[in-house]
Specification:
Blueprint (H helix, E strand, L loop, with lengths): L8 E4 L4 H6 L9 E4 L3 E4 L9 E2 L3 E3 L2 E4 L7 E3 L3 E3 L2 E3 L8 E3 L3 E3 L4 E3 L4 E6 L4 E4 L5 E2 L1 E6 L5 E3 L4 E2 L3 E5 L2 E3 L2
Parallel strand pairs: 1-2, 2-5, 3-6, 4-7, 5-8, 6-9, 7-10, 8-11, 9-12, 10-13, 11-14, 13-16, 14-17, 15-18, 16-19, 17-20
Length: about 170
């Protein structure tokens, strides 16, 4: 994949997302992605060529759906869920977050039995928002001095893996 010389932000609003994605930005990876105006953005199925968002993923209204992606999506910045985030329905379609994970009241997280990993070697991370999240599986792999802080009660229905780092409760 060709890497653009400048940063791209792809805001997806009602009606224009699919056309813009298929024509103007065919060979460019987005730096950040925002979903709004009740738009549904379907992430590529199978093994997508672009399986990372170097910046942030923000879902203000609408849905970001990973469909049947069978490779993890890595978000280099924050993931902010104010509407709906649905992870892949097939193994391998997990979510790696290198920044903060944020879910607010009214936001819905559908894990589809996938793993969410918070990972960093250099920055502190948080799981914050106005509501707790229910994860299928959660992995924390953060060796930064601050580690990962949990701002609310979080639920892990499957496996909680603490690979390395510090976890602070009730931040």
């Amino acid at each position: 994949m060709r890497v653009p010389a400048r940063l791209y932000h792809w805001p997806y609003g009602a009606g224009d997302a699919r056309k813009r994605h298929q024509t103007q930005h065919r060979n460019r990876a987005p730096h950040s992605v925002s979903v709004y105006q009740n738009t549904t953005l379907n992430y590529a199925s199978g093994n997508p060529a672009a399986n990372s968002i170097p910046g942030s993923l923000q879902i203000d209204s609408g849905t970001f759906n990973m469909g049947t992606a069978n490779s993890p999506l890595t978000v280099g910045g924050s993931v902010a869920i104010f509407a709906t985030l649905t992870l892949s329905s097939v193994p391998g379609g997990d979510l790696r977050v290198l920044g903060t994970y944020w879910q607010n009241d009214g936001g819905t997280f559908n894990s589809n039995a996938r793993t969410v990993t918070l990972e960093s070697t250099s920055i502190s991370q948080s799981i914050i928002g106005t509501v707790g999240t229910t994860f299928a599986d959660l992995t924390i792999n953060n060796s930064s001095a601050g580690g990962v802080s949990l701002g609310n009660s979080q639920t892990v229905n499957g496996t909680l893996t603490l690979t390395r780092g510090r976890v602070s409760l009730g931040a």
